């Protein structure tokens, strides 16, 4: 298993598995710009710093992120940008759990991206349960522990139930550590209404009451792309 180390800046993704088509186009451009800015920022401050990008390659947000990571890697090389794939369960079980009945679409897209990743590994279960939401909660904890920055491709609906291991849950797990922020790239679920939907990227932080504070200020957004937060 390859995990981010002290010479890396680690960025992780969480998001919906089925994304609105228009939001997907916008998020793709935003991810491309973000990753390029992170590479430029780390290169300026610490030339040997590597960008480690964590994605479980689930359908939707995870794969969209991975595609942009690999596009940047093709320009910069694997010495500067790596795709790491932490899985919540054994790979065969994971593929089966994600696959729609009678379809191999997920398997095909997953394997195509996996083949270009620098490492694929299972998040340790540490004796915990292997069924239900538990594996995805462990994955969320792993991302929260390892990532210097979490990017959420999410509709931002905090009124919905906090499904264990879901995007809202991962965001809150990440923000449970004081001083952290999540970069929110608004992305609706496929088929969701557009009325009232956010479109601008924002920084999410925890407010004093345990809720989320949203900041669309460009200065706040720039703060999500430091040279190295763990250096």
What labels would you give this structure?
231 residues; alpha/beta; Rossmann fold; 7 helices; disordered C terminus
Describe the structure concisely for a colleague.
This protein has 231 residues and is of the alpha/beta class.
Structural commentary:
This protein has a single domain (8-222), classed as Rossmann fold, CATH 3.40.50.450. 37% of the residues lie in helices and 19% in strands. Helix 1 (21-45) packs across helix 2. Strand 1, helix 1 and strand 2 form a beta-alpha-beta unit. It is of the alpha/beta class. The model is unreliable at 227-231 (pLDDT under 50). It is built from seven helices and eight strands. It has an eight-stranded mixed sheet with strand order 4-3-2-1-5-6-7-8, with helices on both faces. The chain is globular, with a radius of gyration of 17 Å. The protein has helices at residues 21-45, 61-76, 91-98, 105-114, 134-146, 167-175, 218-222; strands spanning 8-15, 50-54, 81-87, 119-122, 149-154, 182-186, 202-206, 212-215.
């Amino acid at each position: 298993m390859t995990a981010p180390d002290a010479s890396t800046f680690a960025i992780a993704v969480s998001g919906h598995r089925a994304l609105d088509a228009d939001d997907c186009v916008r998020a793709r451009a935003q991810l491309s710009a973000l990753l390029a800015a992170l590479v430029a920022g780390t290169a300026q401050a610490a030339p040997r710093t590597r960008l480690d990008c964590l994605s479980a390659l689930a359908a939707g947000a995870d794969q969209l992120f991975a595609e942009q990571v690999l596009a940047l890697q093709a320009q910069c090389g694997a010495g500067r940008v790596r795709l790491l794939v932490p899985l919540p369960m054994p790979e065969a079980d994971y593929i089966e759990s994600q696959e729609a009945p009678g379809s191999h679409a997920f398997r095909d897209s997953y394997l195509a991206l996996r083949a270009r990743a620098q490492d694929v590994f299972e998040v340790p279960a540490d004796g915990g349960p292997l069924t239900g939401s538990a594996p995805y909660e462990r994955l969320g904890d792993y991302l929260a522990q390892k990532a210097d920055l979490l990017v959420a491709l999410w509709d931002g609906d905090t009124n919905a139930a906090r499904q264990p291991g879901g995007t809202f849950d991962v965001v809150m797990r990440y923000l449970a550590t004081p001083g952290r922020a999540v970069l929110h790239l608004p992305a609706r679920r496929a088929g969701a209404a557009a009325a009232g939907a956010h479109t601008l990227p924002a920084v999410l932080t925890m407010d004093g009451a345990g809720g989320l504070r949203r900041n669309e200020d460009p200065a706040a957004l720039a703060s999500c792309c430091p040279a190295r937060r763990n250096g």
